[in-house]
Design a protein that fits this description.
The chain has 358 residues and is mostly beta strands. The chain has one domain: Porin, CATH 2.40.160. Helix content is 6%, strand content 58%. A hairpin with a 4-residue loop joins β3 and β4. The longest helix is centred in the first third of the chain and has 12 residues. The protein is globular, with a radius of gyration of 20 Å.
Amino acid sequence: MTMKKMLLGTSALLGAGMLATASPALAQPGPQVTPVGKLNVSVGGFARFLWILGDTKERLNAQLSSSDFRNDMEVHVIARSKDESTGIEYGATIEFEADTSRNDNTDETWIFLRGAFGELRFGDEDGASDLMKIGAFTLAAGTGGLDGTIDYPRTVAGANTADATKIVYFTPRLAGFQLGVSYTPAADSVANGGRGDTLALTNVDGLKDTIEAGLNYVGTFGDVGVRAGVIGHIGDNTDGDNDEDFWKLYGGAVLSFAGFSVGGGYGKQDFFGREHTWFNIGAGAELGPAKLSVNFGKVLDDDLDQEERALIFSATVGILPGVALDADLQFFDMDRGPTPVTDEDDGVLGLVRLNVAF
């Protein structure tokens, strides 16, 4: 039996179950601005100023000095309403990019319907495997640890379809379980032109019919909080002579008690004929207005005998209502094997971010 048939069969069985990291909740509406028809429209977003320093050339593969300033700003327009006769909630989310250096006008843009049947999303949105992943990054402070601004995408949860145009479905959460499935007909069909992270499937042309799925559990046992689940994807690559399936399977969990958390995850993927194995592990604590965490991740390229590792210490401190100071300190080591792509393969990178949410 082929890997594709095995995964599709598993997806069919999971279809009777459920999934998501703490139910993929919709963005919470901000203050009401203008009612349009029967929808309430609100405006929110964030303004972030970042200072990055250290081995920026080695880690970010950019011709920068050892210190750099960056902006990261978005304005979100959120339309929400509910039909009282059917109980169906509906609306749309449009995230506008506000940085002067960006040449794309939006980030994620999608429509949703939600009711007793679950939730459907249509548009440029993350897939089910990305929205529902759980691991060390789930408990991270700062900008998100392994899944943050100076992230290592491959040590998080493998490749994904990023914001390629798709349909996403989440079942209702029952007894703590939820199932999520998404379908992306063409991984490079991103209306806003964005191509995603380093290992995002949107970086490769010729991909089609990508199915992402996941099943997770969120609940408590006594005073211990539990979040656990599995995610994966499968699809076809029809670019040139490399006509074959690609797939991913990943599982992770987080346990929380009295403000402290531990978690991690492990997975494998076939990325266009090359197999990757990766894992992540971490711990975090919430101490009043401060949140601290440490994340460690490693990825192995099983075919080329290459290895990448990252250890990230992160912190977040609330300094004013709606204002936080974030920090990440990353120690990285990129073992590229016999043909390194940079003069140096290891180093230290730091980041300080002033984050204003509105």
